[in-house]
């Protein structure tokens, strides 16, 4: 029985603005529209697009060599064959959405989002959430939402975005609908919207400041665990590998936490960035992973578990950068990951899929 329902509202790392990172997550067993979002790069516009009947079932839009590509090229065919990956929202979600014009349906689904868990305050992770925020006051579909994250995320959002300059201070307590709820590093807390889930934020590295290369930028990995079954998914913001010459291994600490707290078969999916192909000049990663580095992290995860094989762990790959190229970089990267993993002991059976915008995964 699937525990997690993950709808990919946006799954790239830009620079095209309509597909940046936002994952809507539901408890697959609940019979309502309650959900949370990890990041808010996009929002209502992406929900509305997912509500339209697909013009080309089984195919997805690409902006490269072919304008349409079969979704099997992006998603492990075993997931589509079993129904674990589908286009659009799940039937279970749509059961609770009334027949109505798409804008009304989108606002009703938006109403169900109880919390945003923001990984870091870069624009490609917040833009949709900010622009959508006025809709919490929609008289016909009002809602209350929390903006959650570690203080390095919530404080700048409060001071530099919802400050009555860049955007109205819709988080003002007098309005009472949108509020900040800072989290503590490595401390689990229950999701108010989905109380069956405990969510633990881990701080990780995400490059350095342009103006001061010695000053690092942080991001967040969220570990989401079902209290009863202990089924777990890991949802990562932008990140890079731990520095080699420092005592702190923040990503290593995440892998260690998983190995100590989550049985491998209970690890239902790892949703992680792979912004670049292996062709990238390693000095131009700017706080991100490449396919080679992602495979390196999977090896680190396997080592943390102390097992011979990660078996058929589901890895959903997000935040691919839409670079100037002939082939869709999402296809380049998924092919690279499969080839690299096939040649590494213990990673041969790992299942790789792109976190494809407009698709829902039941895991
Ligand atoms: Zn990003
Ligand atoms: Zn970023």
From TrEMBL:
This is 3',5'-cyclic-nucleotide phosphodiesterase. GO terms for biological process: cAMP catabolic process; negative regulation of glucose mediated signaling pathway. One of its GO terms (molecular function) is 3',5'-cyclic-AMP phosphodiesterase activity. InterPro entries: Pdiesterase2, RibonucZ/Hydroxyglut_hydro. It holds the Pfam family PDEase_II. Transmembrane segments: none annotated.
């Amino acid at each position: 029985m699937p525990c997690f329902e993950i709808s990919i509202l946006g799954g790239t790392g830009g620079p095209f603005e309509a597909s940046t990172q936002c994952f809507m997550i539901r408890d697959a067993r609940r019979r309502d529209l309650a959900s949370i979002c990890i990041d808010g790069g996009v929002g209502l516009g992406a929900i509305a697009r997912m509500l339209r009947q697909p013009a080309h079932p089984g195919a997805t839009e690409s902006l490269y060599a072919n304008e349409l590509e079969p979704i099997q090229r992006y998603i492990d065919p075993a997931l589509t064959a079993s129904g674990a990956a589908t286009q659009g929202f799940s039937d279970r979600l749509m059961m609770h959405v009334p027949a109505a014009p798409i804008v009304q349906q989108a606002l009703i689904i938006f109403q169900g989002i109880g919390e945003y868990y923001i990984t870091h305050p870069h624009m490609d992770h917040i833009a949709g959430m900010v622009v959508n925020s006025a809709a919490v006051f929609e008289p016909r579909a009002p809602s209350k939402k929390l903006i959650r994250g570690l203080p390095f995320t919530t404080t700048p959002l409060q001071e530099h975005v919802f400050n009555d300059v860049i955007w109205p201070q819709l988080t003002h307590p007098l309005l009472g609908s949108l509020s900040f709820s800072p989290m503590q590093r490595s401390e689990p807390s229950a999701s108010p919207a989905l109380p069956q889930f405990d969510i633990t934020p881990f701080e990780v590295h995400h490059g350095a400041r342009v103006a001061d290369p010695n000053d690092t930028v942080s991001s967040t990995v969220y570990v989401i665990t079902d209290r009863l079954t202990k089924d777990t998914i890991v949802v990562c913001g932008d990140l890079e590998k731990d520095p080699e010459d420092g005592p702190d291994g923040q990503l290593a600490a995440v892998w260690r936490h998983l190995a100590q707290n989550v049985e491998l078969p209970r690890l239902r999916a790892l949703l992680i960035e792979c912004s670049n192909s292996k062709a990238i000049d390693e000095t131009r990663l700017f706080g991100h992973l490449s396919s080679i580095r992602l495979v390196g992290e999977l090896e680190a995860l396997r080592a943390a578990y102390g097992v011979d094989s990660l078996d058929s762990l589901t890895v959903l790959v997000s935040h691919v950068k839409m670079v100037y190229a002939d082939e869709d970089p999402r296809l380049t990267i998924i092919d690279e990951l499969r080839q690299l993993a096939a040649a590494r002991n213990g990673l041969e059976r790992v299942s790789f899929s792109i976190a494809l915008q407009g698709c829902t995964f039941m895991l």
